[in-house]
Amino acid sequence: MRCGFRSFLCLVAAAFVLCWSPNCYAQTQTLPRWEVGQPIVHQNLVVFPVRIVSGASKSDLLTLSEAQQKNLVSVRELPDARVSEVLVENKSDRPLLLVGGEIIIGGKQDRIVEHDVIILPKKTASVKVYCVEPGRWTPQELGEKFHSAERIVAPEVRKSAQVAKSQQDVWAYNERVQRQLPASTPMSPSQSYRRILTDTQIRKETEAYIRAIQSKLVRDPKACGMIVAVNGVIEWLDVFSDPSLFRKVMPSLLHSAAVQALAKRSQAKSPHIPSVSEAKSFLEQAQRSQRKVEIEAGHLRREKFETSTVTGFETKFKVSGRQQATPALPLHMNAYRR
Predict the structure, then answer these.
(1) How far does the chain reach from its first CA to its final CA, in angstroms?
(2) Residue ranges of the domains in the chain?
(3) What is the pTM for the complete model shown?
(4) Which parts of 140-278 are beta strand (E)?
(5) pLDDT tens digit sequence for 37-49
């Protein structure tokens, strides 16, 4: 009898340890399992493909670019326009995804989306943004409406918005990145990040990076993310649970990586390429870090994680029609080296 009771206590203790682990929120569901592929190299930029092994999901989310092409979204200034928010209307029958760091052009000044946002079908929501054009506060050709630039901002600017949550830091890094780039045109009085997208020399250089990496990355149907190193140092990652969603966002992420590599190219000292094991370790640190819920709003849950070496976020999405008690499914994780 005593032996049986001790066995029972051991089982209870084991269950407690499992439930208390940092990822306990997600252990009731099938988690994505990823593997890291061989590096793809172009000059001082190294991209490690992340492949889905199991736990892949199909999100059926509409991206901002897709919705814009089909005239199924409206992005505009609030009636009482303010720097930190814009109004997004999803006119479609599918959930709309805005990826953290996406650039929207127009309104009274160009902005970037702070974090991943999911807007349900036929709904309108206020979205947190940061300014990347400090020298303008007047409408231009689009009036008070915006359109997607179909690009994600450079990682240093994106990190300033997501981690530091500082408009001053966003402006500072926006200016710094522009000054580091080999541009053919001077910085505009408004200091808009848009210059990085339109300058002839910057476009030529970034497109060379993108072509070299994307031509190999698109060959793998299981590719669902990437770990990025610049000048031999692993700097950040973006991984998704849905390979088809990653393919939609891939060009924007590669542009972000190309801008970072181009901005730091003059600082490159040696052709060091990090190993696959280093990239795998960076991914595992992000996966295993203890989570803290930043926001939970019905269909969306965002968790933040932070260690001495890595900090980042994971977006989880509750599929429409599931019971309220059903955990949200992992959708996207992005992390930065600290």
Answers:
(1) 53
(2) 24-337
(3) 0.89
(4) 146-152, 223-230, 233-240
(5) 999 999 999 999 9
